[in-house]
Amino acid sequence: MQHHILILDDEEDIRTVIRRQLSGTQYEVLEAENAEEAMRLLGENALTVDVIITDVRMPKISGVEAVDYFRRNHPTTPIIVLTGFPDMDLAVDFMKEGVADYLVKPVEKEKLIEAVEKAAHQRKIFESPSI
C-alpha cells in the first residue's frame, strides 16, 4: 500500500534530498514550496496524506503558522518539523502541540525514514476504530 508524504519547504534542494531519501520506500512524496501551496493541495483537492514534513523558516506563512493550521484542519495527520535552525524552546512547544517529531537538517536517511514510519503508524492508531 502506497502512503503519501507532503514535504513543505521553500528550498527546492531540500525537497529533492528528502524525496530521494524516501525513494524506494512505501512513501509517495508530494511537494509544496510554501504553506499556501500545501494548504491548497490539502484543501482544494481533498488530498489525504499520511505525514506532513515542514520547515520552520519560510516566507509569508512560517512553519509555526503552518503547523497551527495543519493541527486545526487536519488533526489526524502527523507532522514532522524539519529545520536548519534548531531551537530547543520551539522544539518543546511543537512537541507539546502534538508534533510527531522535530528533526534538524541535514537529517540522515535512516533517521528520516524512522521518523516518517513512526508518524505514519501513529496516524493508523489514531484512525483505527475503537474496540
Task: Summarize the model shown.
It is built from five helices and five strands, in the order E-H-E-H-E-H-E-H-E-H.
Any overview of this molecule?
The chain has five helices and five strands, in the order βαβαβαβαβα. It has a five-stranded parallel sheet with strand order 2-1-3-4-5, sandwiched between helices. The protein is globular and about 35 Å long. It has helices at 12-22, 35-44, 63-73, 88-96, 109-127; strands at residues 3-8, 27-32, 51-54, 79-83, 101-104. The model has no long low-confidence stretch (mean pLDDT 90). Strand 3, helix 3 (63-73) and strand 4 (79-83) form a beta-alpha-beta unit. 46% of the residues lie in helices and 19% in strands. The chain is an alpha/beta fold and 131 residues long. It has one domain: Rossmann fold (3-Layer(aba) Sandwich), CATH 3.40.50.2300.
Number of helices: 5
Low-confidence stretches: none
The CATH superfamily title = Response regulator
Mean pLDDT: 90
Strand order in the sheet with the most strands: 2-1-3-4-5
State which percent range the strand residues make up: 15-25%
Q: Which CATH architecture?
A: 3-Layer(aba) Sandwich
Q: Based on DSSP secondary structure assignment, what is the total number of beta strands? A: 5
Order of helices and strands: EHEHEHEHEH
DSSP helix fraction: 40-55%
Structural class: alpha/beta
The profile of the biggest β sheet is: 5 strands, parallel
N→C terminal distance = 24 Å
Using the alpha-carbon principal axes, give the shape: globular
Q: Return the CATH topology.
A: Rossmann fold
CATH uppermost class:
Alpha Beta
Rg for CA atoms: 14 Å
Number of individual domains = 1
